[in-house]
Amino acid sequence: MVTWENDKVTQENDKVTLENDKNDQIKQENDQVTLKYDKVTQENDQVTQENDKVAQENDQVAQENDQVTQENDKVTQENDQVTLENDQVTLENDKVTQENDMVALEHDQVTQENDQVTRENDKVTQENAQVTLENDELTQENDMVALEHDQVTQENDQVTRENDKVTLANDQVTQENDQVTLENDQATQENDKVA
Fold it and tell me: Could you tell me where the Basic and acidic residues compositional bias lies (predicted)?
């Protein structure tokens, strides 16, 4: 009778050992999920840093555009003033007209410079549009990373629930083992008395 009970305890202990092995397997899977989550977090931080860098570059380009616009406005005002002065000088004498021709040549130079600035502004505008497209792509990538984070979190929650179930089962088996041990001790005492 005692041998049968001991065999039963041994079987239950083997069952607990299998459950514990399964628990170790779940823990390893949990560790792998945690590593994946850490990697995704690092990638997200990298994307955030790149976004910050692009934003700083955009701010710099915007400041440069404002500076160029101010310089263009100043040149335009100067050109208007010179034109008024040229008209007045033309009425006064031919000599001033010749001088105005020289000023006109200078105006042509300024106009060419303005055209160059305009072309550069157009180029900067195109670059800004490209940066905006890249920002949109980075935003989409961030959204994908966020979805992956949510999925990993859900998987972690599921593993935690499974671990809790296994822990409850282990506690139940431990209580049953304690009960069997107590019964074995009682049976041993009775056997000692009979002996």
Answer: 1-42, 92-125, 146-165
